[in-house]
Amino acid sequence: MSGVLVTGGTGRTGRTVVQVLRAAGVRARAASRNPAAADPDAIRFDWNDPATHGPALDGTDRVFLLPPVESVDPLPLVEPFLRRAQRAGVQRLVMLGSAIVLPNAPSAVEMAARVRAQPGGVVLRASGFMQNFLRPHPLAEHIHRHGEIRTAAGDGRLGWVDARDIAASAAALLADPGVDARSDYLITGPHGMSYPQAARIITAQTGRRVRVERIAEEEQAAAYRASGMPTEFAAALAAVERGIKEGREDRVSTAVLELTGRPPRAFAEFVSDHAYEWTR
């Protein structure tokens, strides 16, 4: 019996990939470190435990690949899995990558190249997640507690995208392993948006006043560390804001429309859908 293995199957994107595929009648196996006991097609999967990889792949011919999060060097953990997936005859492998390359993280670029070289390999290079504005992300926690966005990105813009649109794009590629696809897609929202613009939209849509506090890159790294992020990852994530400020990440694409047949959600729609997050 064929089907789709969804790594990170209980996360913000993977969970929606599972839901969309199952709604379309496609068998989707939700893989995570803590699989839900109530889900008969959930299975344990841990990047740090290769013994879980074979059983997760068994009986599947497609994979949604979510690399280890909060790592600047994910390839050593992912590479053995890629080899195993190829031996298992996986026909379509869709990896959720990032449009933003973390500083001092060369293996992420190499990992994407390895995925594209796989049979049926596709990389979705997603821009910033709109869900970062929802708790428990540190950005959202600070908005909730203090009514402000602290950023080192200035007025730089990013093509923020809703995780639901990322999931729908991935599911469109995974539902039918025979569908024609490129090996690489830039996944963004409909337009670039700065943090000051985001603050104005949240304020206008919800009535909750959100202001922007401009801080230095070093302050941002310290804030990420305080939230529990590993030191190296916190520094890399803060450095990304320098690239945003300098305009290097202001890119948009039509890939969501191309893959799903509908345009990506705008941030105002996202805020309307989650207004309770800022008003409660």
Automatic annotation (TrEMBL):
TM region positions: none
Superkingdom field: Bacteria
Domain NAD(P)-binding: 8-177
Alphabetical list of InterPro entries matching this protein: Ergot_Alk_Oxidoreductase, NAD(P)-bd_dom, NAD(P)-bd_dom_sf
Protein name, entry field: NAD(P)H-binding protein
Source species: Streptomyces atrovirens
